[in-house]
Amino acid sequence: MIRGAGLTTVMKTLADPTRRAVFERIAREGEVAATGLAEGAKVSQPAISQHLKALRDAGLVTERREGRHVHYRVAPQGLAPLADWLDHYRTFWRERFESLEKLLKDSVR
Amino acid sequence: MRDKQAIVVEKVLPYPPEAIWRTLTTSELIARWLMPNDFMAVAGHRFTFRNKPMGEWDGVVHCEVLACEPPRLLRYSWKGGADSNPAYGSRLDSTVTWTLTPVEGGTRLRMEHDGFVFPGNKIAFDMMSPGWGRIMDGIARATAQA
After folding, report:
1. B7-116: what fold?
2. What is the ipTM of this complex?
């Protein structure tokens, strides 16, 4: 069900501040019941449910059903597209920097 | 904290700033260490870097020289990519800044690739900030328990 979502999906999903807050709370607490998320939040239960669905669809959280309760936890691989994105650029620049150094070594005497 | 986040590569090189500046600002030399280009060291000059096309991206990075102060500061915008691409080929609207500082025995060369901030990308920034560090710890704990 949860396949690696694309970078854009992950970004768009987390761009919403309320949804990000929900995600961060789940991450902080390890595992949270959907009902527990609405408590103490300034957001209605249906709104929370919508955010949870979006997070689940983006592969950012997984759910576990226990009787009438649904518990959510962060899917560890969910943020991988973001990490990959930055890693790619880090690697890119590190390699180019090395090429620059080599070129300088060859051309500056 | 957030606005400080960027990709930074920094190193002291055993050459004078002028020699490094030449390598950073001469089109043929840039082509040898970075990418084919039509760069000119003139503020306001628009140029491109040409990559291999990737997915829906034609591989072209669109740039403009934003600052050019030989031999100490070079900054250009860096735009390209496509929404549909993963990682490296993804859309990016950013800035690359090169700073050259004379130090004993050479030059401190610093590259800062800044601006992973267009709408929706703020989270990528946040991820690297201390707040995200805690969240990543939470994720690690959750993973360990799983």
Report:
1. Alpha-D-Glucose-1,6-Bisphosphate; Chain A, domain 4 (3.30.530)
2. 0.73
